[in-house]
Write a structure and sequence with these properties.
The protein is α/β, with parallel strands linked by helices. It has two domains: 64 residues; 252 residues, no CATH class. It contains 13 helices and five strands. The chain has a five-stranded mixed beta sheet, sandwiched between helices.
């Protein structure tokens, strides 16, 4: 076979790849997985990577989607599940050591820019960023493990709107998990979130050293979820750059795949609290289960009402402020 460089004895890298994969017509599965990971990690366009592996652009894009679907199906039950009893015990113990008794993590939203959003939908997906985006809501713990991922709402919404549709508290309100009060668990949030029992925000008007100490500790710990977003974007360049897909239906599979791969890296690089257990599929909308009787519905509505108890929220904030000042801030002030 005559080649452009070096004759038939020393084929170029592109030709070697073609020979290893059986030609450009039917690339081997290993080459497809390599090309998919290359695009996910580097954020390069389909035509660049497709040319390297002698694969058509349309075939390559289908490979990306299929790869994401397989990752979600195979690794989702282990690497993107809701915390079980053992996980909650470990999270609570670590939170106690960090000065936040009862903390389960931090919650926030991230926007992924959609570059190829159709013009007819662009207005619905534009928000304060002035670009078409799709929102990812996530809960992350201290080790950057993402325990909850809800993706798919348009960038026109804000964090509160996403929270109203998110299933993050669905199990709690359906009576499928222990009560989540200030003795069981809460999440650190920024100032836009409402004053719910399960949320702890910073203090905006600081009037004492005690409040300053609490606000500093809260803002430092709340950065866990933002750090998780940063690591997610750093590992997977396609999330950092604008999404080039046309179909919004494929984005959930892609983003869920990135979150799962992110958690596998967290587990490999550190001592996470994760243990293999089943989980209920993430990202689903909150719906009333079929066949739910009136008593169950009333209990669910009552739990939603309890989550919004501002008096308990205020009491939780005061208890944490006194606890942190007694155990840490008071010593620092006297030092």
């Amino acid at each position: 076979m005559s080649l452009a460089k070096g004759g038939g004895e020393n084929p170029t890298p592109r030709v070697r790849m073609s020979l290893a994969t059986g030609g450009g017509e039917n690339p081997a599965p290993r080459a497809k997985c390599t090309a998919a990971l290359r695009m996910l990690a580097l954020g390069t366009t389909a035509d660049v990577v497709g040319e390297m592996v002698r694969m058509g652009e349309s075939t390559y894009l289908k490979t990306i989607v299929k790869f994401s679907q397989v990752v979600v199906e195979v690794f989702g039950p282990e690497y993107l599940r809701e915390p079980n009893v053992q996980d909650m015990e470990k999270l609570l113990a670590i939170g106690e050591a960090r000065g936040f008794p009862g903390i389960l993590g931090s919650i926030d939203c991230m926007h992924w820019q959609w570059n190829n959003c159709p013009k007819g939908l662009r207005g619905m997906y534009q928000g304060h960023i002035r670009e078409a985006t799709i929102i990812l809501e996530a809960v992350a713990s201290h080790d950057l493990w993402i325990w909850h991922a809800f993706f798919g709402m348009s960038g026109y919404h804000i964090d509160i709107n996403v929270l109203q549709r998110s299933p993050v508290f669905r199990r709690l309100c359906n009576g499928e998990s222990p009560p989540c009060n200030y003795n069981m668990g809460y999440y650190l949030v920024d100032g836009i979130y409402p004053q719910w029992v399960v949320f702890v925000k910073t203090i905006s008007e600081l009037r004492s050293r005690k409040q300053i100490h609490f606000a500093t500790m809260q803002e430092v710990a709340r950065k866990d979820v933002e750090r998780a977003f940063g690591v997610l974007q750093a590992h997977w360049g396609i999330v950092w750059s604008a999404a080039m897909m046309w179909e919004s239906e494929t984005f959930w599979q892609l983003m869920t795949c990135y979150v799962i791969l992110h958690n596998t890296i967290v587990e490999d690089e550190g001592d996470g609290v994760a243990q293999p257990h089943d989980f209920e599929a993430p990202g689903e909308q909150v719906e009333i289960p079929e066949g739910q009787d009136a008593a169950q519905l009333m209990n669910s509505l009552q739990m939603h009402q309890n989550l919004r108890d501002q008096q308990v929220h205020t009491q939780l904030l005061n208890d944490l402020l006194e606890h942190m000042w007694t155990n840490n801030g008071n010593q620092e002030a006297n030092a």
